[in-house]
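1st attempt posting a full record on here, be nice pls
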Amino acid sequence: MTARQKAEHWSIGSVLDARNDGGSGALLGYLPIGFPDLATSIDAAVALVDNGVDALELGLPYSDPVMDGVAIQKATQAALSAGFRVRDVFQAVEAVRSRVDAPVLVMTYWNPVLQYGVERFADTLRDAGGAGLITPDITPDSAAEWIATSEKTGLDRVFLAAPSSTDARLIETVNASRGFVYAVSTMGITGARADVDAAARSLVARLRGAGATRTCVGVGISTADQVTEVLGYADGAIVGSALVTALAEDGVAGVARTASALAKGK
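the predicted structure (as tokens):
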């Protein structure tokens, strides 16, 4: 990792803390890498930050996206059909970080990381300026290799908590996570919803009780009003499907407009 990259490396925790110290939570935006093509996905990610998004989640397209809703599934399948390769992740992260000063987390199912090599993936992500990983399909008790590797590289590791999680599981998740805990607002797959499930508020309270210092809520957030609602009790609001839909329908300009509208909820 170069001195420049070290100087510019922001952890997601520092951004969440800064936003909260300033009296507002953070807005996190998700987009898949390689949709509709690699260059446009990079431009779209930059547009998010330029229009009020505080931190980025760049999704690694995967052939079996069990957690993702229709909009994200279509986008990731299009990226795979267009020739996406895992190495494109690191190119995208480095390109985005060269243009905006915001943390970039990679959201990925675990199999691509395992196939690439956990240490190799982590080292390359760190050297590209990435902040860490969000891993939706592994739990802390099955993530020993990733936890050990992230300790060595200093990368953040974000695990998910659901309303159905037991108190014991929440404590385990809090203790294993670094950066924040990802609170899934509803049961099921991602996608914009008219109402963010009230279970999110209860889940965040339970995570606080389990010792969490930073919690971000995702799945189903699609309006500025919902961002405001979530930031009333959580440290960050995560938006994905609404941004992916905007990119699919109106390109980078559409993403910029949608991000700007969402940011009004902070």
